[in-house]
Amino acid sequence: NERTFLAWIRTSIAIMAFGFVVVKFALFVKQIALIAGDKSASFVFPQHGHSGVLGLTLVIIGVLMSLFSFIRYKRVERQLLHHTYEPTSKTAMIFTLAIILVGVLLIYYLVPSI
After folding, report:
1. Distant-in-sequence, close-in-space partners of 112: CB < 8 Å, separation ≥ 6
2. Mean pLDDT (whole number) for 47-56
């Protein structure tokens, strides 16, 4: 139970870090384009802020994953102590779908720039 909990926590930290990188990298690219004085940079890098929304979404998913993993950890701990453990995969399925959705949004965002 503890190993599973720690794996969920590591995954949530990685997702939050990736969200942070997505937001900061977009800001970095915009600043470099402004410093370089490239007038075409606005055409290469969209100015409508999708990377900020995607990055924030990833951070929110990471935070929710941490919260739900702790709740699941405590529930499984209680079940193990009372010898009533029943496995469930609802939480994993929800977060898998959320990550797939964000991945599809990232693909949609990145394809026009290729």
Report:
1. 46
2. 75
